[in-house]
Design a protein that fits this description.
mainly alpha; Helix Hairpins; globular; three-stranded antiparallel β-sheet; binds fe (ii) ion; 2 domains; single chain; 210 residues
Length: 210
Amino acid sequence: MHEHYPFTVKPLPYDYDALEPYIDEKTMRLHHEGHYRTYVNELNKALKEFPDLHHIPLPDLLENLEILPLSIRNTVRNNGGGVFNHELYFNVMKPIRQNKPTGKIADAIKSHFGSYDNFKSKFKDAALSRFGSGWAWLVNDDNGKLYIISTPNQDTPLHAGINPILPLDVWEHAYYLKYNNRRGEYIDNWFNVIDWNKINQNYQKSLILK
Ligand SMILES: [Fe+2]
């Protein structure tokens, strides 16, 4: 069950330095305590004066932006997207040694992309070609078909039955302190900290929910 207003800042499921050397402690701290916390606060501030919206879970708000008053629609789109995307991103990373896909998602990646290496290459292309700030995603549709897409700013893939499985934050704040302008190096290293058990769960859950 997803939470609704007032939204809270969730702790990271690991220490700030847990993803070293791939993602550094300073970046994780600033990302979580600074950027993510601000999205939560701004989302709550926007919804405060609209009690009719307080019972609605975040994914439902983001899937149905057209139900929101125009005065807060963009604020919820940007900050609500920021909350949803970052919680998913923080939760699919983990300090692990085994970093290859596992379970049903491993089979699905093989059948859709030919091999894990080919998947990585296509995912990296999507993340590199997202101009400016945004996200790269592995998503699936209601039929379980996998796609690699990217979205601008804090937009989410939560529309048209598209289910986000694996997000990658390619805003500069996610990598600039360590990698400067070398987004490609950040992406290559990020593949080392993906928690494929979690991705497999995200994939299987979406198949059950459909
Ligand atoms: Fe971010």
